[in-house]
Write a structure and sequence with these properties.
By secondary structure, this protein is an alpha/beta fold. It folds into two domains: about 1-305, ABC transporter transmembrane region fold (Up-down Bundle), CATH 1.20.1560; about 320-515, 3-Layer(aba) Sandwich (Rossmann fold). The chain has helices at about 1-5, 10-40, 45-90, 95-100, 105-145, 145-165, 170-195, 195-200, 205-255, 260-305, 355-365, 395-400, 405-415, 435-450, 465-480, 495; strands spanning about 320-330, 330-340, 345-350, 380-385, 455-460, 485-490, 500-505, 510-515. Strands 4-5-6-3-7-8 form a six-stranded mixed beta sheet, sandwiched between helices. A two-stranded antiparallel sheet has the order 1-2.
Length: about 525
């Protein structure tokens, strides 16, 4: 797991082990120095002992600070890497796949679960790595001093690790229950937010409060059960640790009786902490690592997900759509479709609700894959859909996006869509309440004009506009001779239909007829 976690971060991993080893050596040295001071307590008035202690304190500070600093750096880098991997995986999804997951699931993953991972996994993991290094150095020390003490401590370690291994499955299930409850809590809060006006209008406060109370109690119970299980195991681990502590005291006493110097016995007691502390704490830490492993596994799966980097083809002269049968979730949505959308042509697709217009639109723009696939032309295509989300940036930024800003061109397109009254530098809020639905839709239409891409896909792009405004703006697009345009429309403006090269009439998932301009 460590190898996957620090994937492509070998330098950082090497720095971590360097500081952990240095801290372990200094910790071992402190026990030796303490033993020497005990054996030479009569000579403590000599200057060299004060100098040695001062030098050791400085070295100890450097080692401890360096270890803590590299651990914080590791947590920061891990947070950045996992979040960037998750974002990259999400952005690689198709529009349809992305929206199949609820918003609260993304919020939970990118906020709550990440914080939990840092606190309950990364911090214990780095601590466990430090304890493991201390354990190795302590074992080497006791192997040269007293193999009997080493065998006793190792036997206790095996017993403790074996006991805790029995609870791995239960710990994972307990943590998964916590994650599920957190997700449900976010979903309920989101539901309350979106339906707040309904709650107030119909006096549903009491019902909503009861629903939220049940969710709160369920979440609190899951967390309580998880923490109680960990606390129970912690208590047992500490009792085993005390057995090891008293056992090593007895064995160190045997060292003294065998003629060992008092300083050596004291050093042995100090060094024994590098074994007993890891043994006591490791099982406790391991329980937390096992408990939170599902969170890490989900982030690693996102990071490791193969992101297919599609290479856009050149601007296609045509987009042939051939569908014998398109089945989604066991239901036939489209069938017997054979139509070619050509460059510079204007095509309107009409039909009753549920006839498959939007599904065909999703096929054309590539959200639903066909076999063989359609040309990938998204780099040459502007898309305007019925929903009109905008970025919390300025009006100009929402129109220009990454295209260089041209003030004259910007003013021109704002005028063409009837938004010349807006300040291009006006910043929009996340909730977009500063604009009406029609204004938001016209900003997206202005974006399509400004980008000047050769293909334009419109899905109910004029639904929030009145008939007169729709007729005027639609004519701007239709009369652009170099533009290929596909428009899904439920209620078309009759006067503009004659401007299209083809009107495609759909019904029950297929094309019933095509009316050409020349007909």
């Amino acid at each position: 797991m460590i190898r996957r976690l620090f994937f492509h971060q070998n330098r950082l991993l090497a720095q971590i082990f360097f500081w952990l080893v240095l801290a372990a050596v200094v910790e071992l040295g402190s026990a030796v120095v303490f033993g020497l001071l005990i054996d030479h307590i009569a000579d403590l008035n000599r200057l060299r002992f004060y100098a040695m202690c001062a030098g050791f304190i400085v070295l100890h500070f450097i080692a401890q600070y360096g270890r803590e600093r590299i651990m914080e750096k590791a947590k920061r880098q891990t947070r950045v890497t996992l979040l960037e991997g998750a974002i990259q995986a999400y952005l690689a999804e198709s529009n349809i796949t992305f929206h199949q997951t609820e918003l609260n699931a993304y919020l939970n993953k990118l906020s709550t679960q990440m914080d939990t991972l840092m606190d309950q996994y990364m911090t214990p993991l780095l601590k466990a790595m430090g304890l493991a290094v201390n354990f190795v150095f302590g074992c080497v020390y006791f192997f040269t001093l007293s193999p009997l003490i080493l065998c006793f401590l190792l036997a206790g370690s095996i017993v403790m690790v074996g006991f805790n291994a029995l609870f791995q499955t239960k710990l994972k299930a307990s943590q998964q229950a916590v994650l599920d409850q957190q997700s449900q809590w976010l979903a309920r809060v989101q539901t309350m937010y979106h339906n707040f006006s309904v709650i107030k209008n119909y006096d549903l406060e009491k019902r909503e409060q009861n629903t939220l109370r049940k969710t709160i109690h369920a979440g609190a119970d899951a967390i309580y059960a998880n923490h109680l299980l960990l606390a129970r195991l912690d208590a047992i681990n500490f009792e085993i640790g005390y057995v090891l502590f008293f056992g090593q005291v007895f064995l160190c006493g045997l060292l003294l009786r065998s003629g060992a110097a008092a300083g050596l016995a004291v050093s042995a007691m100090q060094v024994s902490n590098t074994i007993t502390n890891p043994v006591i704490n490791f099982s406790t830490i391991r329980n937390r690592l096992v408990s939170n492993a599902p969170i890490l596994a989900s982030f690693l799966a996102l990071r490791d997900r193969a992101v297919s980097s599609s290479i856009p083809s050149e601007d296609p002269n045509s987009i042939p759509v051939q569908i014998d049968k398109l089945v989604i979730q066991g239901k036939t949505i489209l069938h017997d479709i054979d139509f070619t959308f050509r460059a510079h042509e204007k095509v309107m697709i009409v039909g009753p609700s549920g006839c498959g217009k939007t599904t065909l639109f999703n096929v054309i723009k590539g959200d639903i894959a066909l076999d063989p696939p359609l040309p990938d032309f998204h780099a040459y295509c502007s898309i305007v859909e019925q929903d009109a989300p905008l970025f919390p940036d300025s009006v100009a930024d929402n129109i220009c996006l990454d295209t260089p800003r041209d003030e004259n061109r910007l003013a021109e397109v704002l005028d063409l869509v009837g938004l010349s009254h807006l300040d291009p530098n006006q910043r929009l809020r996340l909730d977009h309440d500063v604009l009406s639905g029609g204004e938001r839709q016209r900003i997206q239409l202005a974006r399509a004009l400004y980008q000047r891409r050769p293909w334009l896909l419109l899905d109910e792009a004029f639904s929030a506009l009145d008939t007169q405004t729709t007729a005027a703006i639609e004519r701007v697009f239709v009369e652009c001779s170099e533009l290929a345009m596909v428009s899904i429309c439920h209620k078309p403006v009759a006067a503009n239909m004659a401007l299209y090269d083809a009107i495609v009439f759909m019904e029950r998932g297929t094309i019933q007829r095509v009316q050409r301009k020349e007909d």
